[in-house]
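Q: I'm teaching a short session on how sequence maps to structure, and I want students to see two examples side by side rather than one. Could you give me a first protein with its sequence written out and its structure tokens following it? Keep the formatting plain so it prints cleanly on a handout.
A: Of course. Example one:
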Amino acid sequence: MPELPIDSPMRRRLPPLLRHAWYGLNQAFRRRIAPLGITPDQFTILRVLLEARSEGVTQRELAQRMGSDPNTISALVQRMETAELLERLPHENDRRAHRLRLTESGRKTYKKARPIALDLQAEILAGLKPEELESFLTALQTISKACQDAADRSPSETRVGIRRPPAENE
């Protein structure tokens, strides 16, 4: 019997599997941390800032660490600054940039949210045998890197769905 094409409806397909996994995880976490007044993305920012060096990180560094775009990060940072979860401090070398650091309130919120995140992760991964877990995470990391590499090699867009025309010197 010939092998089915990779996009056959009779096969498991990578994009819907990733989309459904991410959506389910994100919704479960969103609902569980809602009483804390933060979103999954805000939790991730709190974690990144907690794990950062003491002088904090710039918004650009934060966007890179989260695999997100700067505009999304900017809006999140504004809301979190208003909620006093983080603070923006002048960058020591770049007048246009700011360093982001957790406030005490941000640390306390993270401390409350972390067990919720860990419990959910354990719940999700409980379906794997211990000997499968590391292989699964390694494979997922490989896929994640391949997706990012593909994005880096792809033409940039000026608007969603519309490709930027190549410059004359490209």
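Q: Perfect. Now a second example for contrast.
A: Example two:
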Amino acid sequence: MADLQQYYGRQLVTILHPEIHTLMISGLVEPQEAAVAVQLVREQFAGRCVAGLSVGSGPQGLQTVMGWSVTEAIQQLELWGAQIIALEGPVVISAMLPIVQCCRKLTSLPLAVFPMAGSPELIDERVDYRLEPADFAEQAAALIEAGVDILGGGRGVDSAHIKSLFELSVSQPNKTKRTSPRKNNE
């Protein structure tokens, strides 16, 4: 535990700056690692703490990649002081949707996701993402409806995808409006 505290403490000192208002701790998979990282950020940083949780489906249902139950992980992250949960893992929108739906029922904290522009394909020796901007926007709107508060773009997402999502939110605001209440109807 002391080794983890020193490791994260050294990293934190190098990035603290008065202009930084939010820190994201990405790839949290084990409870001990998550506890140390989140608690250090909350103790030494006045801004918001985003805890990135690597999630997928396992034999016991939704789990972190190391087998920690999502229910326990979210409860503990809230207890340790995380202020936003960033769901990492399968970042194709269709695979992310059931994870968001489950997590929205477990927490009132804001949820963040950063989906890719489709599944990666190898074309002419380079990785390509072929989900068109309008399709990305339509699919991403389902994540918002399911309870996502912060939506970003992962691999393959470019300004055209973000513009399409923005245009959809303006032209069809009900498509990008949350209908899924937060836990405890907050």
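Q: What should students look for in example two?
A: Point them to this: The chain has six helices and eight strands. Also worth mentioning: The mean pLDDT is 82.
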